[in-house]
Amino acid sequence: MKSKANQSQGLLIFRLTPSQDFAIGTLKVREIVPYTKLTTMPQSHPMVLGAACIRGQTISIIDMAAAVGYRPLSKEETEKCNIIITDCQRKVIGFLVRGIEKIIECNWRDIEAPPPNLGTRAFLTGVTQVNDKLLQLIDIELLLSNVFPDDSSDHKAFITDVQREQLKPLNILLVDDSIVARKKLSDALNWLNIPYKVTSDGKDALGIIEAEAEAQHPIDLLVSDIEMPGLDGYELAFEIRNNPAIASAYIILHTSISREISVGQAHQVGANEALTKFDVDELIQAMLRGAQHKRNEAQ
Q: Considering the entire predicted model, what is its pTM?
């Protein structure tokens, strides 16, 4: 099966340094515009250069190079730069970059997880080779969490004791390539005292699901990111539904892309639900629907 995500997702390649190419998935990109005059925003994060009015909308503009640890843009450079307008985590944000290279088609199965020696603070979700050159995928969620920290209360859902007891017996697996998203998912369930397993990779997730089924303890509820290197959420859902030994899992797909998700695409590959992350109440309610679904199956 060709992934539903990969059918419409390429990579936008851009420069943050003179010698290194970086990329983000095109589904996160709303548009690319030339540099425009910025208005200073008092008391904003140091990485926020200001705000631009683009198509009638006021948008915060971030120096992406500085935000991920490279040399900040000089005043002389900024006027030659481009702004990538993204739609991610329910925020429309602009990133000023030193240059736009091109958009390419991409087989996301060729993208590998970042090497472990980069550490947990590396702003990467994956690496791949394009024309014998290393291409690094920026973790937009981690970058945004540093510039616009969440209120910890946003990670807390409030449910009844009865609802908690409905979720606690379930064998739950969380999958996301972003360290920030994994923490948010984990925090939400830790707050509710609900046990779970977590991994950063679709291939690892499939292995866990198969191993749990073999051990007679099948995964009941899967919460998976859609955009992931190696094996994306659509492909993972398809693989699960195509294997009778693991096909009973209740599958919730979610993505940081703020635009409306194609629920039809999610259903075509066998997912039960599709959500825009991250609203903890929406997620927990979806998980409760999964618990109800499992109870109905058992009756």
A: 0.75
DSSP H or E stretch at residue 54: strand 48-54
Sheet architecture: strand order including 29-34: 29-34, 82-88, 91-97, 57-63, 48-54
Distances (CA, A) of 294 to 50, 221, 298: 49, 9, 6
CA atoms within 13 A on the CB side of 187: 18
Q: Read off the pLDDT band of 252 (50, 70, 90).
A: very high
DSSP 178: -
Residue 1 predicted with pLDDT over 50: no
- Homologous superfamily assigned to 152-298: Response regulator (3.40.50.2300)
**What is the topology classification, in CATH, of domain 4-147?**
OB fold (Dihydrolipoamide Acetyltransferase, E2P) (2.40.50)
Q: Which residue has the tokens 């915060």?
A: 60
Core vs surface per residue 245-256: b (16+ CB within 10 A) or e: ebeebbbbbbbb
172 residue type, one letter = I
Which runs of consecutive H residues, i.e. helices, occur in 53-135? Answer: 64-67, 75-78
Neighbours of 26 (CB within 10 A): 15
d(CA 9, CA 192): 35
Retrieve residue 56's tokens. 């009638």
Give the residue with greater pLDDT, 259 vs 11: 11
Q: Which of 250, 235, 264, 237 is nearest to 297 (CA)?
A: 250
Instruction: Identify each DSSP E strand in 131-169 by its residue range.
Output: 133-138
Q: Spell out a b/e string for 183-192, using b for 16 or more CB atoms within 10 Å of the CB, else e.
A: bbbebbbebb
Q: Find the helix packing angle between 179-191 and 140-147, rounded to 10°.
A: 70
The pairing of beta strand 172-175 with beta strand 197-199: parallel
Q: Where are the domains of the chain?
A: 4-147, 152-298
| Alpha carbon 253 to its chain's center | 11
